[in-house]
Amino acid sequence: MATSEPEPGTELKDSSETSVAVPSNETVNSEQYIKHPLQNRWALWYFKNDKSKSWTENLRLIAKFDTVEDFWALYNHIQRPSKLQFGCDYCLFKDGIKPMWEDELNKQGGRWLITLNKQQRHNDLDRYWLETLLCLIGEAFNDYSDDVCGAVVNVRPKGDKLSIWTTNCQNREAVVSIGQSYKERLGLPLKPVIGYQSHDDTSTKSGSTTKNLYSA
Fold first, then answer.
1. Torsion angle, CA of 73/139/154/176, rounded to 10 degrees?
2. What percent of the chain is modeled with pLDDT above 90?
């Protein structure tokens, strides 16, 4: 399943934790080992901010998966976002879409952005990120799940960020529906609102001056 291995001791735990011993004197029901396929194949990326390397060199593919069981096997062996060093990211994207603005399926799109305060790193970050992952692999956005490209968690000193990326920022109906569903799934209060920004605006302006195209 894994296409490349993360740095030792940084993201992955000991894989021996998931080994299963099947008694030889028992009849095994093969149905118990049939995996449950996901609608899409997904790729998990890891970014580590090493200033001696380029941005693309810092981005590394960890693994791909397309079944429920393989998702949990991967999730249970990586560090939670709250344990990552500042400047690190996790990115989960549909296979074939790279977690960068320039990708063909991202460049006309944007992202729903949630910014957490420092206290939320310990209280909410890991829970929100898992719920975000489940939204993606579970196609939780109904008719608009095809518009979703992926999600990113940014671990930063001033406050961590969660975002869901969509493929077309001009598809208002899809974008707004995704944002409302996402906010509901995370159990966020009605206020403050969360904002949606186009990648084009984000790439040409600083974060504080980027205007929201939509809100939820």
1. -170
2. 76
